[in-house]
């Protein structure tokens, strides 16, 4: 009998996924990028050379499930998409604001905190050093008049399992610690230094606990978190203007590129045979091929997205794609990029310069905006 998938709390899911992750709301319109989906694969995806696959496909989100792996607690999402015919794109685009009112802004985000585990935190038999902000904002109030101040903290994980920790305030200088119960949690969750622990106070008052596994790059080291970037209206210093995509936008409204980390050529690689090699993805190549075949034929399809897989998002908000395609990208143009800190607790920015504006694979994917900018 097939195991029934159990959806988890969306707020806990987003806290575990990280603040930079953007999941398109239900009934919103997106552009689906087959090349990006292929980068999310465990191995090479060999697209058929006989058929020309559109580089991006306009779709509506018809179903959305927030899930977590039963063994690793890694969060992922299942998104069902329905392709929208080209002759309906103008109509859909004109109604974007009506369909997505209030979808991107949550009324009030719950209080949460993430900490990257140190070697001491992850040691078997040791305790967890709780940052003061987490202890005083997320945890239940501690009675500091007691000697010593101590309480039992009860937290629920992504699967609904209850964990109990002894929270004590002690030492010289005094600090907050989780002692009894912490080692059991570390062992059962197989936590190591570099992983992150997430505590969230849900709207119903319950305390929740989640995990972010350390991202691993190709060489085994920690990978940079996913990021997005915006044009800074810089002037062209060197290089030639690339105006081709402005023409595509006028001729075909459904050929657009996203304003985000997909445009940066920092992950994955392509070759002239049309194969795309995944870097650290989670999805089987045959699942990608099945989704692409259905999408190209205009039939509903489903994709699985792992936000912590160190690969770019491949279902991108339609309005962001259109906005990016209206920019006349130039070599030498300045930009700023948002990226998460190591424990995904906040977003920082750094500046950069566009060094190249060209199609990544002009033979297999001509006119594709995927990884257009370097």
UniProtKB/TrEMBL annotation:
CDD domains: B3_DNA. Residues 113-215 form the TF-B3 domain. It is found in: Nucleus. GO terms for molecular function: transcription cis-regulatory region binding. It holds the Pfam family ARF_AD. One of its GO terms (cellular component) is nucleus. Keywords: Auxin signaling pathway, DNA-binding, Nucleus, Transcription, Transcription regulation. Signal peptide: none annotated. One of its GO terms (biological process) is root cap development. The keyword Lipid biosynthesis does not apply. Auxin response factors (ARFs) are transcriptional factors that bind specifically to the DNA sequence 5'-TGTCTC-3' found in the auxin-responsive promoter elements (AuxREs). Belongs to the ARF family. Homodimers and heterodimers. PANTHER family: AUXIN RESPONSE FACTOR 16, AUXIN RESPONSE FACTOR 4-RELATED. This is Auxin response factor.
């Amino acid at each position: 009998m097939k195991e029934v998938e159990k959806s988890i709390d969306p707020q806990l899911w987003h806290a575990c996924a990280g603040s930079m992750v953007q999941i398109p709301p239900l009934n919103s319109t997106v552009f689906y990028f087959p090349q990006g989906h292929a980068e999310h694969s465990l191995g090479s995806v060999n697209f058929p050379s006989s058929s020309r696959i559109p580089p991006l496909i306009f779709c509506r989100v018809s179903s959305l499930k927030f899930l977590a792996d039963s063994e690793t607690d890694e969060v992922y999402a299942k998104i069902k998409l329905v392709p929208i015919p080209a002759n309906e794109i103008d109509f859909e685009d004109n109604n974007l604001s009506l369909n997505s009112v209030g979808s991107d802004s949550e009324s009030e985000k719950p209080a949460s905190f993430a900490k990257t585990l140190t070697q001491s935190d992850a040691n078997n038999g040791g305790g967890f050093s709780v940052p003061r902000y987490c202890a005083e904002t997320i945890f239940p109030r501690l009675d500091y008049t007691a000697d010593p101040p101590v309480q039992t903290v009860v937290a629920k994980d992504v699967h609904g399992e209850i964990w109990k920790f002894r929270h004590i305030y002690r030492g010289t200088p005094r600090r907050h610690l989780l002692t009894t119960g912490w080692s059991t949690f570390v062992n059962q969750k197989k936590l190591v230094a570099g992983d992150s622990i997430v505590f969230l106070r849900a709207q119903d008052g319950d305390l929740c606990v989640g995990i972010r596994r350390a991202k691993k790059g190709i060489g085994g080291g920690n990978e940079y978190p996913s990021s997005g970037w915006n044009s800074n209206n810089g002037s062209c210093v060197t290089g030639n203007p690339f105006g081709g995509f402005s023409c595509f936008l006028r001729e075909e409204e459904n050929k657009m590129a996203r304003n985000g980390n997909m445009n940066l050529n920092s992950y994955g690689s392509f070759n002239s045979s049309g194969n795309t090699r995944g870097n650290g993805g989670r999805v089987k190549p045959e699942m990608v091929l099945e989704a692409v075949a259905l999408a190209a034929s205009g039939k509903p399809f489903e994709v699985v997205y792992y936000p912590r897989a160190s690969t770019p998002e491949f279902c991108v908000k339609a309005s962001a794609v259109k906005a990016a395609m209206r920019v006349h990208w130039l070599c030498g143009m300045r930009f700023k990029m948002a990226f998460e800190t190591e424990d995904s607790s906040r977003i920082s920015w750094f500046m950069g310069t566009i060094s190249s504006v060209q199609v990544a694979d002009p033979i297999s994917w001509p006119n594709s905006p995927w990884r257009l900018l370097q």
